[in-house]
From TrEMBL:
Coiled coil: none
Keyword match Membrane: yes
Keyword annotations from UniProtKB, A to Z: Cell membrane, Membrane, Transmembrane, Transmembrane helix, Transport
A Pfam family this chain is assigned to: Multi_Drug_Res
UniProt xrefs under SUPFAM superfamilies: Multidrug resistance efflux transporter EmrE (SSF103481)
Gene3D superfamilies referenced in this protein's UniProt entry, alphabetically: 1.10.3730.20
Family as reported in the entry's similarity comment: Belongs to the drug/metabolite transporter (DMT) superfamily. Small multidrug resistance (SMR) (TC 2.A.7.1) family. Gdx/SugE subfamily.
UniProt-recorded name of the protein: Guanidinium exporter
Topology in membrane: Multi-pass membrane protein
TM spans (from-to): 33-52, 64-84, 90-109
InterPro entries hit by this protein: EmrE-like, Small_drug/metabolite_transptr, Small_multidrug_res
Highest taxon of source: Bacteria
Source organism per UniProt: Azotobacter bryophylli
Length: 114
């Protein structure tokens, strides 16, 4: 269905973006007691895991999982800063940049970098 490791990286990016979509709305579920936000979360959790599983067909699972988590963590933190009023101090930004650097390094040094 999806050929080549380049497709794996695109699938992984989409999986990470899907993770951001569900993580950002978790507070609105109010402990998964509100049906529509909960269904939104369930849909994007499922989509994210499905896309991650497709990406691991061509990428090493350790690399794929670490990059997936990194995209989700940084994206959700940026969402929190931009839309939820979370602090954007120098320490937080520096730590997020460390994660971005680690994700970029995993992509760069992956045996399937394509």
């Amino acid at each position: 269905m999806f050929g080549g490791s380049s497709a794996g990286w695109w699938l992984l990016l989409c999986a990470g973006l899907s993770e951001i979509c569900y993580a950002a709305v978790i507070p609105r579920t109010q402990g998964f007691t509100r049906p529509w936000p909960t269904l939104y979360c369930v849909f994007f959790i499922g989509l994210s895991l499905y896309l991650l599983s497709l990406a691991t067909r061509t990428l090493p699972v350790g690399t794929a999982y670490a990059v997936w988590v990194g995209i989700g963590a940084v994206g959700t933190a940026v969402y929190g800063i931009a839309f939820l009023g979370e602090p954007a101090n120098l320490g937080r930004i520096a730590c997020l940049m460390l994660i971005v650097g680690g994700v970029a390094g995993l992509k760069l040094f992956s045996p399937h970098a394509g």
